[in-house]
Write a structure and sequence with these properties.
This protein is mainly alpha-helical and 234 residues long. It is built from four helices and no strands.
Amino acid sequence: MPADHAASLLADAAELERRDEAVAGELETIRSLAERAGAVRIRVEEVRAALDRLPAEREEVALLFRAAEEDVARSRDELERAGSRVASLESSRRRQDELDRARKELATAREAQSDAEARIERLAERTAELEAQEQALDAERALLVRTAAEISSELRTNGRVTATAGREPGTTLPELDDWGGRVRSALFVARGTLETERERIVVEANALGSSVLGEPLGASSVALVRRRLEERLS
């Protein structure tokens, strides 16, 4: 084979490998964008669900808090009555068994009051936790908005993705969810197009290799075809 023809064939193989690497790089970019956008959408759903649960959780805690406050008030009244009864029995020197019962009732009243006050404290802590959780979720929502905007900016500069995917994602969780769906569809199409293009490059490279080597190739990569041609033609 003339040297110039061999050089031309090797140049063709090198160009196919360059095109294959370029498409592979674009594919990796699309996969990365899809992964990042998918992570945003998943977290949007989780944050949205958590925020949707908060009103019911706060209402439940508020009901329990009011009930605990009523229990505290009742226990204080009972404690006062039990204390007065014990004091009365001690001053009148009534029978010991009657005084023992009154003292037991007083101890029970003190325990009930302590339990009710502890319940109030726990519910107050839970209320603070729910408020902190809402603030954290709101902060994460803002972060998700910024992240989605950054991804949209990258999508607008990617020639493989439709223009609709690069539209601003919005600022609310429902808008972010809709944005995520649009981006997922657009990137799915772009990925399919690139994968098909890469498959065609591999077919073209195999055809070139077969024509030179005189045998069918089952090579799965353009780089492998190029190496075999270099071994034969160099």
